[in-house]
Amino acid sequence: MDTHTKVLSSGIRHSNLPESYIRPESERPRLSEVLPCKDVPVIDLGCEDRTKIAQLIGDACANYGFFQVVNHGVTIEDVEKMLGAADEFFKLPVEEKLKLYSDDPSKTMRLSTSFNVNKEKVHNWRDYLRLHCYPLHQYVPEWPSNPPSFKEIVSNYCAEVRKLGFRLQELISESLGLEGDYIKRVLGEQGQHMAVNYYPPCPEPELTYGLPGHTDPNALTILLQDSQVSGLQVLQNGKWFAVNPHPNAFVINIGDQLQALSNGKYKSVWHRAVVNAEKARMSVASFLCPHDDAVISPATQQHGVGAIYRDFTYAEYYKKFWSRNLDQEHCLELFKN
Ligand SMILES: O=C(O)CCC(=O)C(=O)O
């Protein structure tokens, strides 16, 4: 790729889908077959009955691997500021953004494109800004200083989302019949990463993806979806369902580490982002990740079911994840007993 075609958000509207983005026939999204999703649960965290919330979360984790939360404690103002800062960042002149470009996944701050350009055969219609976010004082200095408010707005958002993530981990622990602090304790001092995803309008959305089907390698993902433009889809019983934006909600999904920790009871579900011809779409994914040295092993074993996965450290898992292409088999399959 030459410098100007390194990212898609260059200000140039593409009239054709370049060859390197075209999926073979059998791998295309078949958008007309996607079902409107009526029932990804929306859970009200403001409800006073904690046992009920934990139960709803447990059902959602076991049956869907996905749920949405409202009354989650992050203010609308903080959410809007976050989306505004992301929007301003992607509107910067391409020369400015390219100063931050890297396709090396080990970098703690980088603007990149697609998923893993050096590993994949076909590219994806996405640019993304990937940030490490914890501890903030260590990483904020390397974040973009343009737009000027970026660091302050995004660090505030990260701190709020982290609190929400811990609250959810407590409820997930309780839903598994564990002590409230179980997950937090065994995952050690958790890392936090962010992917600010920007999917420009795409000339031929039927032929490509923003992100192909994948599961998340971390513990828990808190996704802020564009409030106007849909694109997220989840796999349920072999069919893709659209998860359309719900007002003031975050979409939460279980990552591979919580599937392993729950010995397969809770599902790290395949999901993907599709693109559309008219509108750009933005999403902000926050990932809580176990400490590198945390040993992931089953906390619960159902009667008669042995440990499905061998014990591993998060560092080992993460290295394996990034050594592969995104749309291969579930990475956890490689850790099965
Ligand atoms: O853009 C979306 O809705 C999905 C993003 C996602 O799956 C990710 O960043 O891992």
TrEMBL record:
Residue span(s) of domain Fe2OG dioxygenase: 190-290
PROSITE patterns (UniProt xref): FE2OG_OXY (PS51471)
Catalytic activity: salicylate + NADH + O2 + H(+) = 2,3-dihydroxybenzoate + NAD(+) + H2O
Coiled coil: none
UniProt KW keywords: Dioxygenase, Iron, Metal-binding, Oxidoreductase, Vitamin C
Gene3D superfamilies: B-lactam Antibiotic, Isopenicillin N Synthase, Chain
Cofactors: L-ascorbate
A molecular function GO annotation: dioxygenase activity
Protein's GO biological process: defense response to oomycetes
InterPro entries cross-referenced by the UniProt entry: DIOX_N, IPNS-like_FE2OG_OXY, IPNS-like_sf, Oxoglu/Fe-dep_dioxygenase_dom, Plant_2OG-oxidoreductases
Name of a matching Pfam family: DIOX_N
Annotated family: Belongs to the iron/ascorbate-dependent oxidoreductase family.
Identification of the protein by name: Fe2OG dioxygenase domain-containing protein
